[in-house]
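Mods, move this if it's the wrong board.
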Amino acid sequence: MRLSKIVLLPLLAVALISCDNNNDPTVEPPSTYEFSRNGESSVSFTGQTTRIQMAAELTFAMMDFDNSTEESLLNMYRNEGTDPFDSADLNEATKNIKGKVAASTDYFSSNSQLSAEIKNQFENWLVAQVEEVYPNENMVAAPGQPGQIADGEDVRYVNGKGFEYNQMVGKSLIGALMADQMLNNYLSTSVLDAGTNREDNNDGTLAEGSNYTNMEHKWDEAYGYLFGNADNPANPTFGEGNGFLNTYLGRVDGDEDFAGIAQETYEAFILGRAAIEAGAYDVRDEQAQIIRENISTVIAVRAIYYLQSGKNGLDQSTPDYGAAFHDLSEAYGFMYSLKFSRVPNSDSPYLTAQDIDEMLAQLTAGEGLWDVETSLLDEMSETIAAQFDFTVEQAAN
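Not the wrong board. Structure tokens:
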């Protein structure tokens, strides 16, 4: 089902991967994502961990009707103002979310206008949450009326078209921040091999004041956007986290149709990092392609899963609007994230931004989710699945 054609020997046995030419380097991957130099770790992705935690605080704060304001939410997104976060560590950080949204070298270095538009889209959603949803916290949601809607024992807060802005922001950041930086920036040869990176890596020249080469660090940063907030990042539990990429990697892996995708992705990161240490750049690049396909697949599977879940909630004698709108708000974010997917061995996403925007416009047309046709949700699901090596039925279960 997936791109990977490499058969990895068990990592616990320390696989040896070499080429036919005896002069080619041998790659000895460790069993976990642990690499060292001179007795000290050479792995660093603190910036990625910080941004994942910032994104988690931001989406949580969007639901804090009593304390959050337009200014406070924007300050969290930009990391501006005085102590915008609850976490003292995040307040001391120099990183921010906005600067890395739609900021990859491959997709946006020559399109600053589009990058700015996407960055601003998130700000618009934050402002809309405060201006549209907060004042109507105690109103019953209806077509054109923001407010609350029951979802079993939970309460969802939606805009006039039935969408939850917090879900749109959170799930869209999976693509616009995490996947874009991983697939289209740090795993790209344009970044890994930038400047003298390859020469420095061959010579063992370390980044100033650090215990890693620039190339090693770039690969680590890609890894950090997936596993950087795990309890044990070197040997993470698939599916743990704050509702971002690792969470959904684990959920997709739990579907028997995609079983093994998490371990394959993890092992590709390990082997790619070991290949960098060995100077085996062909092996490194093969692993990058595996990761690109698998992460793109995770996003697509969840987009379809939520489209179909939303359809099932609506396709009842008495529609379950609360559950359906929650699922379709998540679907919106995952569909948005597909803009930042990456077809292996190409410079393109699986679906173009125009394709995605057209589908999202259909979802938000008219009364939005209040009058969306279930047949449209099926059409969108089929459109997405057609670009991948799986079916709607496989993604939906």
